[in-house]
Design brief:
Layout lengths: L1 H6 L8 E11 L8 E10 L3 E10 L5 H18 L7 E10 L6 E6 L3 H19 L18 H6 L3
Parallel strand pairs: 3-4
Antiparallel strand pairs: 1-2, 2-3, 4-5
């Protein structure tokens, strides 16, 4: 997998690296807490700021996988916009497959204003539900170890 990454064009980023695993925090929605993002790779190509989110997967991503995950990058776009100095911001996922013959595929994520508005509205509604005490656990082996709601989730009786 490492050899596939090293052989890819992503390994030579094609610009100035602005950040690797860089945290970015900001307010996107009134009445909601700040959003904390961790940008895997941020590069200034000279003409644009490119945000790349690195993922590993057991198989190649389908269009449905891309659609399902795109909200994350759309929110990152909004957080970095004030820092982009007017440059275009491009978004992409780089998916490294963990198969017998690994591959690295880059998937651009277009900035769709309707999809962004829907993602923001979803986040706003989730925060309103949390504030109202509507709590539905969503355990995940990937996220539970760092989740601040780990105990309430585990203790939830329904």
């Amino acid at each position: 997998m490492l050899a596939v990454f090293q052989a890819s064009e992503l390994a030579s980023c094609g610009g100035t690296i602005l950040g690797i695993e860089e945290e970015l925090r900001g307010k996107l929605l009134p009445g909601c807490p700040d959003l904390l993002a961790r940008l895997d790779l941020t590069v200034d190509t000279g003409t644009e700021i490119r945000i790349t989110d690195l993922k590993t997967a057991r198989a190649r991503w389908s269009p449905a996988d891309l659609e399902s995950a795109s909200g994350q990058l759309l929110l990152y776009h909004e957080l970095i916009k004030p820092l982009a100095s007017g440059k275009t911001i491009s978004l992409e996922f780089a998916v490294l497959t963990k198969t017998k013959v690994p591959t690295l595929e880059r998937h651009p994520v277009p900035v769709d204003p309707n999809r962004l508005a829907r993602t923001k509205k979803t986040a706003e509604r989730i925060w309103q539900a949390i504030q109202a005490g509507n709590f539905y656990p969503v355990p995940s082996p990937m996220n539970c170890s760092t989740c601040p709601f780990r105990e309430p989730c585990r203790d939830w009786k329904g």
